Amino acid sequence: MVKIGINEKSLPFDLNWFDKLNCAKSCGFSFVELSIDETDARMKRLDWNKEQRLNLVQDVFKSGVPIDTMMLSALRKFPLGSEDEDVYEKSFEICKKAILLAKDLGIRNIQIAGYDEYYEKKSLLTRENFIENLRRVVNFAAENQVMIAIETMDDKFINSIAKVREVKKDISSPWLQAYPDLGNISAWPENIPSQDLAEGLENIVSVHVKDTIKVTDNNPGKFKNVPFGEGDVEFFGLFKTLHRIGYNGTLTVEMWSEKSNNSVMLMHQAHDFILELLTKAKLVVDK
Q1: Residue ranges of the Xylose isomerase-like TIM barrel domain (predicted)?
Q2: Alpha-carbon gap, residue 92 to 104, rounded angstroms
Q3: Deepest in the core among 22, 68, 90, 125, taking most CB within 10 A?
Q4: If you average pLDDT over residues 192-216, what whole number do you get?
């Protein structure tokens, strides 16, 4: 059985949290994914006081819609593998704050982007720093019983579950797992998405659902803002794969429509598109 959730960046930007949660529910979604991105406003959430945290917990209880996962995309600006010692330490502090916030809000799973470096040059050192710093993060997460899940990315550094499993050889912990993005693993020509999912099942703790356009020799691909059904992702086949391998868990619809005038309509359309294909693939959806 699977649950369909939606990322916060799909929801109307100006709504308060209680209304965001209810909006997600009205569009058919079972949970919301909290965004901690690079913006100052969202990074300030890491320093919420007890009252602010309690207010959101109360909104969750009143609405009946949990916040099951967190997207910690702030690490693009402060990457774990940075060669800059100050940035390296800042990224670890961000992760520690995110883990404690997740613990207070009842979030089970923090998604960390699989980048050693995003804006600056990659090197052997950035890879080694990433592994070293991620080990510190995972140890702190284990102490607090919060899952760290590496997302498969729009970057060759970690663009498959197989590459997450390679990282796990260096960091052996049940608190470090994979958060595959169906769009991202489908976009890279070297990947066989159904095989990647099947071989990586034991490490999958959540799945992102978005459409993408494939990378080719003449095209860098497109990893964001591709409307469902207009990209190259073979959703029906991938959902059949998830059914065949016995995946049970969450599916998080990912869009960037929060500042769109028709964000609610897009949410409804995305939900109906995904639900129809899940039903056809015989994946049972938990309402």
Answers
A1: 24-263
A2: 19
A3: 68
A4: 98
